[in-house]
Integrin alpha second immunoglobulin-like domain-containing protein (Bracon brevicornis), 76 residues
Amino acid sequence: DGSNLPNITWIIGSNDISLEIIISNNKEPAYLTVFVLSLPKNINIRSILPSCRETEEYNVVKIVCDVDNPLLSGSP
């Protein structure tokens, strides 16, 4: 049942979770930057940002998000 697992563990079939991803750049401007999140195919995605798209390859769902272009130095 997962009751003895650390709080950072999420078990498939558990309640919904929300992810907040923060991308930062500490060097020179980054162009055409994307963020890719890969998840097992049996994970249901409820919603994604308009700047993201969902693709499927084999047994993996990928969420691909466009990041600011350019992503400037000091950008959180």
In short: The radius of gyration is 16 Å. The longest strand covers residues 34-40.
